[in-house]
Structures are given as C-alpha cells and as structure tokens.
C-alpha cells in the first residue's frame, strides 16, 4: 500500500509499485475506457519572478531512490541528467528550449557548485534550489522527468510531458519518450508542439480513479476506507489465482 497516484487516493497493487505496477501500457486499453473523471481543482500559483516566460520544467529526483537506481537505465543520477542536457544544448544551440531544473526537497545533496557551473556555462539551463514545485509545473510550457510523480501531475494538468526513464505513464500517444541522448535532443525540439491524444489521457485518469485506486488516503483511514481497501485486496489476491 502506498500513496495514491491521484489526490485523495491510495494505491494497492499485487505486482508492485512505480514502473512495476499493473497499470496497462497499451494505449488502446485507455481509448476504450475513456469516461468521466472527477475534476481536481488546480490551485492558482503566482509565477515566480525568476522564471523565464517560456520553459520546460525538469524536477530533480533523489539519486539513491529506487526510481533512479532501478528504473533510470541511461541517466544514473542528476549529474548525468545535467550532462545530457548540456550536451543537448551544445548540439541544438538556439533550438534548445529554456530548461528550469529544481532540486528535490528530500535530497540533502549540495548542488551549489552545479548551480554556479550552469550559471556560467549555459544560456538555456538553470537550476533552482528552492521554490514551489507546483508553481514551477503550473507555469511550464512542458514538463520532462525521469519518472517522478511530477509526470502524472503534469498529465493531470494537461501539460505536455517527456519521460526520460521507465515510468508506467509513458504511453505512446500520451507522452514523448527519450531513452538516449539522440532521442532527448529530438524530443526537446518537439515537446512544446506535441499534441497528446486527449482520449488516452482521459482513459488513463478514468482508469486510475475508477478501477485502479482506492478512494481516500491511507493516512486518514476511516471505516469506509478500510472496507474499500479490504475489498480491493481480496480482488488482488483472487487475480493471483
């Protein structure tokens, strides 16, 4: 059992979490399931003054987290991510979009030297050590991520999303994917103009809300939530045969 992928929900999956979960990856599955999705209000966030008018937001992740250790085949840590972005900027030159990076709030690694390095060596890439992640998402033209939950937040907000690692929401027609340096450089030039299939998006969110997850947060479990969790657990056990 873990935090829900959508606000106010809980995840319980017999196959595991993150990329190992049982959420289907076939876009056709979600096209046939497109239905009503509960609207989630997106709190208005003031644009931080330091942000450029147009940018792609990329959140840092914790280097030792399983999401990076297990599910990031070609970007082994955040330094590798920055190196790949700098190489892309060198190759793409002015075609490189403005890129806003932000450190992870749970990471205690000191990136002060990396911030200085980017400030002196890059025209397009900036790393911030503080700020409201939700504001960074809300004002972005697009979001790129290795496999952070920021990716599903961007999809919920109908913001174009690029996946750089292994993530369950990396679905053809819904997101762009870059699993190599060459693919990253190509995707950065296509991301803002990408047109995701709205039926796939609606179908994924409908499936997560109505079939995959348990209503309510496990941290605030009441009798109704526990009953729903038990019923869901029974279904998961039955699927194991």
UniProtKB/TrEMBL annotation:
InterPro entries, per database record: Capsule_polysaccharide_synth
BP-aspect Gene Ontology terms: polysaccharide biosynthetic process; polysaccharide transport
Name under which the protein is recorded: Protein fixF
One Pfam family per UniProt: Capsule_synth
